[in-house]
Write a structure and sequence with these properties.
two-stranded antiparallel ribbon, mainly alpha, Arc Repressor Mutant, subunit A, 270 residues, 6 strands, fold of a uncharacterized protein from magnetospirillum magneticum, globular, 12 helices, two-stranded antiparallel sheet, 9% strand
Length: 270
Amino acid sequence: MAKAKTGAGKKGEIRTSPYSSKIIKAGALLSDTKTLLSAWNPSLSVSDNLRRVRRQNLLGKTSRSRAEDILAIFRQRYLAEETVARALATLVKRQCNGNTLERIFYFHAVRADSLLRDVVIELLLPQWSRGAMDVDVREIDSALRKWVEDGKTSGAWSDYTIRRVTLGVLSTLRDFGVLQGAAKKRIAPAYLSLQAFSYIAFYLKQHQPSGSKLLDLDDWKLFFLPREGVERIFLEAHQHGLLEYHVAGSVTRLTFPASTLEEYANVLTQ
């Protein structure tokens, strides 16, 4: 079976896995994610936190199976690295700007879901580059059918599943702010706040120490950012004191005023 790129492993590396249809049950889950993170206890392990969420029904779900579906997605997106969970909890508890939070949630969610990632980078980005903003559901559906035929999915998908996954992907990307519109969707104007950009840069630098290579990572394509756009925002973040960015010839030096992601989350919310 052909494999597709997906999100970070224990050390943030890109791993491979087949496309999943979990998006049918998940979506962006922005409200549930904020609820979970606002109750997150950084002194407890991931497992202990999740047990507490279940025991106290902090999600307020009437169905245990629905709560478990959400916790499974939450674990996949945000809990592969405990430092990420603690940093996100800090951002939520310190009432970080909503747009910034959504962009950061989107970043982690898409890195953890190869299907969402490839829809953005392989389908929406080329379309955006051509200046075509309207999203044709039939084109997304057709691409998914091709990926199923290519063996990129976790088993064969029926026409019904493909249709539901297509709609699930589009509604999820809308809720994350990548798309806009109800019945007819368009690619939304690209936006990435300085705080969200800086958080993502810090996270990526933990896994790619080379400043010059970091500029060329595919992760920036999730925000439709070309290399020159990444460089421009680095300079802007430098001017605002969120990081230090210096370029001398072929050498790029990038440093941050914190040593851990959780510490940096505190810096960003001061």
